[in-house]
Amino acid sequence: MLTQDQAAAIFRRLRQYSTAEEVEVYFYGGKSALTRFANNTIHQNVAEENYGVSVRTVFGGRTARATTNKLDEESLRRVVQASEALAKVQQPDPDLLPVPSAGEGAPAGGPSRHFASTAAITPEARAEAVKKIVGVAEKHKLTTAGIFSTSDSVDGVFNSRGLSTWHTQTSSEISITMLATDSSGWQKANSPDARNLDAVSLAEIAAQKARDSARPREIAPGKYTVILEPAAVLDMAGFMFWDFAGSAILDQRSFLNGRVGSKLFGDNINIWDDVSHPLQSGAPHDGEGTPRQRLQLVENGVVQRLVYARATAKKVQNSEFKDHVGPIAPTGHGFLLPNEMGEAPMNIVFAGPQNPKSLEQMIASTERGILVTRLWYIREVDPFEKILTGMTRDGTFYVENGKVQYGIRNFRFNQSLIQMFSNVDEMGAPVRASGEESFDMVAPAMKVRDFNFTEVTRF
Amino acid sequence: MKDIAAWALNAAALRGATYADARIVDDRTRALSTKNGKVGSASDSESLGMGIRVIADGAWGFAASDDLSRASVEATAAQAVEIAKASARVQTDPLRLAPEKPAVADWIAPYQIDPFSISVEQNIALLLQVDAELRAVKGVTLAETNMNFRREEQWFYSSEGADIHQTKFSTGAGYTALAFAGNEIQKRSYPNSFGGQWQNKGYELIEELQLVENARRIGEEAVALLQADQCPEGVFPIILDSSQLGLQIHESVGHPIELDRVLGMEANFAGTSFLTLDKLRSLRYGSDLVNVVADARQEHGPGLGTFAYDDEGVPAQCTPIISNGLFTGYLSSRETAHAIGENRSGGTLRAESWNRLPIIRMTNISILPGETPLTLEQLIASTDHGIFMQTNRSWSIDDKRYNFQFGTEIGWEIKNGKRVRMLKNPSYSGITTEFWNSMDAICSRDEWILWGTPNCGKGQPQQVMGTGHGASPARFRAVKVGTAYKGS
Predict the structure, then answer these.
(1) Helix (H) or strand (E) holding A150
(2) Which of A114, A265, A399, B456 could anchor a disulfide with A301, C-beta 3.0 to 4.6 Å?
(3) A50 close to B (CB below 8 A)
(4) Contact A435, A188 (CB under 8 A)
(5) What does CATH list as the number for B2-227?
């Protein structure tokens, strides 16, 4: 693995090669492995090791970036030259700030997200776990497909004003689909510590969903009360957080244009961005190396504030929007510069309700509704009303009189996120959840009324 | 590179691999963009490494490294064999590869102008000129432009004796105008969404696109959409422009014909397919006018799915997918060809770069143009009442590829053969085979464009791949329109 000391030595060489006024270097890379199975067989099994440096140089307000994974002297010299050549032909950007000082960098510490036992997992160990998953499938006369992946990664930022940040992290993930003749079930979990993953338990739940949804019936599309499991909630929610950026307001591409400070969602919606949360993951610094701050974005349904990279905060402060967007200050959420998107909150934590309901309690209190395991192929239909379309998948059930009755054919929905988060009747305890359409979050299951299903498919 | 690959192949054989291939890729990219009169990003990137794929104990293993020293290459090959042997612990049947005569070849995709030879100043000046045209239109609140170049050089060697060296450039460019007012954001893109048009060409593509010439119109349309009528809900004939039809092909033909999906190998992520094996040469996929091919050959055009050999050394081919409406072919690989009774791969295995395992990917999945001369304007003139939709805005389809819904940036109501009004927020939905069976007209070769889709995601770990889709505008009868806004 690339160490912080090795990175520091590379940074010193890069600085020697540079004639720029300022230099900022982002280091990234690591080892990753993924065992993939389908039809009860491991059919793909891969591993990778790769490290890179991404060099940003600055000349009189002009900046640009060049990246390479070639770390020999000649390549390091060339990547600096490439960055400088690109930077020198830019127009000066009056909004560009000096690179952050050492004192502005993210402090060392925070929750450890590196586990040696996860980094040491072998292909044999992954195969053994898959064998157990296949065993569950065979026990239930199903076939299974999925993955077991692990990684050991580093990332860090060094700059010519002395800032230096470094983050190491392991991650592990298991995703399982169980397939029957005309139905399927799914479960997925991830953690920096693979010991938190229970392959057999996940496989059993996925298998149960596949069995319970066999011989799916078709029911008419329309507005239903839905019980969305956490993966379904986060895959929907993920589509709105790109709009919580100061840059999105400046660009007027945000659904929060003119809406910060207003009550958009129900009283029971409280959302934080908190990289330090024990169930969260990722580096404590942003693309410039400054610390990611813990912020409440939504309080009792009211959008309280946005997140900002350093330069964005300054621009918004000097803009016509400054009195309409809540607190304005750098929050440590910027992407690597230069970029068009600015910043975004990426460590979302939904606050739990005072009386969280279990999935079983939500089902028991439902007279007529739909239980949704997972959503799929979600895309934005309308950027301001935040209407999303997509499909249910891998375990969709009809609920009546407080009980799951039977599996149903999958629905297409066209649903406004604003309305969805205004119609949450019950909520579970937030958990670390993972889907396929959005980044991981700490999110609860939700019971939502009047969810808008518009079509039904053939299975 | 041959020596480096030999280290890998020898080390794999010594460890017990019965088959091995080594793919070295040297990638170079440049990305330039502007936003509202300023450079948004300017970056160069390069990546070099090797991926080693082996069969040992009858199972696959793959390992990749950015370190091409002999010690690293041999260790990576040993790792690939170790991984294959672990795979063999959970396997029902040993792998078998369709035979393929090992090729020795050196191929450079045709191009006229090396895009990296054009100065960054010239490129940015062009993008800023476009940006100025877009923002000259009152009401445009966000103008974004982009220009992207890639040079990909690949060396492929196999234990069977393949020795293939391929080099290609790809180029992409486009722009978007957003107009925000009241409670609405409208958008227009040129020449397509997804960053514009993308092809395996050099800088000559930029010169062909007429970027500046179209910018004012695109800005005006974005603003005009704010005042346009909402697209009605109902059942109508629709005409799709060629870029939207290209995406329709991608989603409702290209993905379901991937044989790995059909065989369940993508069930956990990308999904499966309604095109079960019994449907080959028996399913009426579309109307008699529907003819679709998967064509990776240079003679099909400079699509993002054009190459000389795929990433397991199989020559580029043209496979008829839909022939006069009948479903006739899948996308296959050496591992999967036997499942459809073929003794040779269709040549569609591709990887995002050196660090990814090649998987079945679309090549250029194109609908053939109509043989009877028919322009778009003639097609519109022959339509009594319908809706013409242009440029994709949203897209979604279920995991077996039956039910789809697309939204486009702009629509036009057609009455008595004429465009009578602009429509905002158009959308349409349907079931794949019902939709393709409703196609009753397609424009001829003059209207046919080979579009590039640069962002197709598939696989675990996910890989992003460019695919090509040739299409002419076409008309579909009795399509459900407007559902996207129903009840929201």
Answers:
(1) strand A143-159
(2) A265
(3) yes
(4) yes
(5) 3.30.2290.10
Contact between B304 and B467 under an 8 Å Cβ cutoff? The reply is yes
Dump pLDDT digits (tens) for A326-381: 999 999 999 999 999 999 999 999 999 999 999 999 999 999 999 999 999 999 99
pLDDT for residue A456: 96
Q: Which candidate, B413, B438, B437, B436, places its Cα nearest to that of B423?
A: B413
Give the domains, in start order, of chain A with CATH numbers: 4-207 (3.30.2290.10), 216-459 (no CATH)
> What angle do helix axes A199-212 and A123-139 make, rounded to 10 degrees?
30
* Beta-sheet strand order (sheet of B318-323): B326-327, B318-323, B292-295, B365-367
Q: Among A50, A79, A408, A434, which would you mutate to test the B interface (most chain B Cβ atoms within 10 Å of its Cβ)?
A: A50
φ, ψ for residue B307, nearest 5 deg = -160, 175
Q: Encode pLDDT of B14-33 as tens digits.
A: 999 999 999 999 999 999 99
Q: B396 vs A436: CB contact, 8 Å cut-off?
A: no
* Cβ separation B45–A49 shorter than 8 A: no
The pLDDT-based confidence of A111 (bands split at 50, 70, 90) is confident
| B488 pLDDT above the threshold of 80 | no
* Omega within 30 of 0 (cis) for the link into B191: yes
pLDDT for A154 beyond 90: yes
In chain B, what residues touch A384 (CB-CB under 8 Å)? 180, 183-185
Residue with tokens 């158009």: B426
Q: Where are the beta strands (DSSP E) in A235-386?
A: 271-273, 295-299, 302-303, 348-350, 368-382
- Which of 2-41 (A) contact B at CB < 8 A? 32-41
- pLDDT tens for A118-141 read 999 999 999 999 999 999 999 999
How many whole angstroms separate alpha carbon A52 and alpha carbon A28? 5
Q: Report the alpha-carbon distance of residue B333 to residue B250 in Å, rounded.
A: 19
Q: Would you say A53 and A66 are in contact if contact means Cβ atoms under 8 Å apart?
A: no
**ipTM field:** 0.96
Interface test with A, best of B85, B396, B479 (most A CBs within 10 A): B396
Average pLDDT score, chain B: 97
Domain residue ranges of chain B, discontinuous segments joined by +: 2-227, 230-485
